[in-house]
Amino acid sequence: MSEAEQPTILEVQELVVRYGSQTAVDGLSFSIRRGEIFGLLGPNGAGKTTTLSVIEGLRKPDGGHATVDGEETVRAPLAVKAKLGVQLQASSFQSELTIEQIARLYAGLYGLSLPQRQLRERLADVGLEQELSKPFKKLSGGQQQRFSLMVASIHNPPILLLDEPTAGLDPQSRRQLWDRIERSRQGGGSILLTTHSMEEAQSVCDRVAIIDHGRLQALGAPRDLVAMHRDDPRVRAVARGDVTLEDVFIGLTGSAIRD
Amino acid sequence: MTETTVPAAPQIGLTLRSLLRADATVLMRSRQAFVLNLAVPILILIVTNRGGRLGNPGFLIGMALTYGLLSSALIGYSITVARDREAGVFQRLRVTPTPTWAIMASRLAVQLAANLIVSVIVMIVGSIMHNTSFSFGVYLLMFAVSLLGAVVFLSIGQAIVGLVKNATAVNAVGRVLFILLILTGILGSTGILGDDFKSFASWTPVGALINLFSAVLNASAWGTDQTEGIIASIGYIVVFAWIGIRWFRWEPQ
Ligand SMILES: Nc1ncnc2c1ncn2[C@@H]1O[C@H](COP(=O)(O)OP(=O)(O)OP(=O)(O)O)[C@@H](O)[C@H]1O
Ligand SMILES: [Mg+2]
Question: Between residues 81 and 140 of chain A, which touch chain B (CB distance below 8 Å)?
Fold first, then answer.
């Protein structure tokens, strides 16, 4: 089965989200196929986290809807959440619990009663076998990130939502994470991730959506986006030498600083 | 890598067990707070037992019980909820297939259990310190009144985290309210501020509870004070729980 024939796992249609009078997401639509790694790109405040929060069931949209594997987020929130693996941009775990206790809690919340041996195996898989009795806050940034990803995928969800999973990681940890992402795709899972790294988007994402002010600016494979916008004057104006995905990004979203 | 399976929504029993175990662990880890919640009531019992009685044992034990319940239920509960909300702990829990009521119910259940343990210890220490022994029936009644008091104070705690978002502000409001409730309740029910104030105090959450405790412990006849106390407590539970649930927000800001 070729990529294009894969069924849709996630669909966002005409999504609108407002905070008071401010429209954070403004008629956004895109869909993700099974096995696809999809990047949501956009400057600070573009509406990436807000879009994810609707899919995660944390916010009700003011317009449009999102469906995960055919289930609508507002109508069947628990069924949707059971299919999602989530790593939030800003979240934490109870600071009094050790990571082993946290892992057991989240396994239980996803309906798994894993024996201790299996739980420890999962933690060893992400190189945390020495840290079992540490609280989350005492882990290094890279360890925290690996742990969050392990918790997010503890139930083998068909789709993972990762909000800036590589922010603050050193190059080694970043590469390691890309490998993990690649492996999870080979297992048939889809991933929706946000990132500010064009290098990351280019090396791990099958397709990316560039959004700004909550609206879609461009959608496609990174290579195709570069080809498509190579001659756009806004892109030409910011390119230094060969046009890159970053040039396309800045060209389409402007060079002013946000937030 | 294993084949990706589409997981079904988990059983509520497993969900609740997992939450309860985690919340109980958190509470046990904060042993310091638990010891402090116990230390003050026991201190009250010791001090009032020295050099001539400061009142009848029933009243004093009731006061110690009330203090213990108030500090662990009102302050302990509201501060941990506000702090976890601010840190994003609730947001992370809410993206799992867990009904939100279960998240709260588990926390409340664990708090309630901790409160009752504090109460039982205070009762036992109290009866030893004051050389009184109570019948099993009185212990049961004390337990029931403790339960009522814990629910009143937990609902006040819930109202605080419903109306106030910032964790530092919740801490401050909790402490101010704590002092106000203790002062009106205890000073009022001793009667040193006059009869008008005494009858006003018997309607406050702490005053009502002290009245109920001393009636139970003195095996005195059921009077209007006690009926009023029960009515007031139930009223507080309904009003504050409603406020606390109606205005509660899960989001950090
Ligand atoms: N809880 C909130 N209340 C009010 N406004 C909000 C809230 N959350 C986000 N916003 C606003 O909505 C817009 C989109 O924010 P969002 O967090 O979705 O952006 P983002 O693309 O994830 O940005 P970043 O790359 O910085 O994480 C911003 O203008 C932000 O200020
Ligand atoms: Mg964001």
Answer: 81-84, 86, 88, 90-97, 101-102, 104-113
Query: For residue B54, what pLDDT is reported?
Result: 61
Q: Measured from the CB, is residue A153 less than 6 Å from ligand 1?
A: no
Per the CB < 8 A criterion, the answer to whether B74 and B157 are in contact is yes
Domain locations in chain B?
A: 12-246
Answer yes or no: is the C-beta of A44 below 6 A from any ligand 1 atom: yes
Q: B18–A109: do the CB atoms touch at under 8 Å?
A: yes
Residue B193 sits at the chain A interface (C-beta within 8 Å): no
Q: What is the pLDDT of residue A1?
A: 47
pLDDT of residue B36: 79
Surface of B (65-84) touching A: CB under 8 A: 84
Measure the CA–CA gap between A64 and A62, rounded to whole angstroms: 7
Q: Is any atom of ligand 1 closer than 6 Å to the C-beta of A211? A: no
| Domains detected in chain A | 3-253 (3.40.50.300)
How is residue B9 annotated by DSSP? P
Q: Which residues contact B178 (CB under 8 A, 6 or more apart)?
A: B70, B71, B74, B75
Per-residue model confidence (pLDDT) at position A187: 83
Give the integer Cα–Cα distance in Å for A133 and A153. Answer: 21
Instruction: Please tell me the distance from the alpha carbon of residue A75 to that of residue B116, in angstroms, as a whole number.
Output: 40
Tell me whether B87 touches chain A (CB under 8 Å): yes
Q: Are B229 and B212 in contact (CB under 8 A)?
A: yes
| CB spacing of B89 vs A93 below 8 angstroms | yes
Which residue, among A225, A224, A208, A238, has the nearest Cα to A37 in the 3D structure?
A208
B73: which DSSP letter? I
ipTM for this prediction: 0.92
- Judged by a CB distance cut-off of 8 A, whether residue B11 touches chain A is yes
The predicted model scores a pTM of: 0.91
Which of the residues in chain A have pLDDT under 70? Answer: 1-4, 259
Per-residue pLDDT averaged across B172-186, rounded? 92
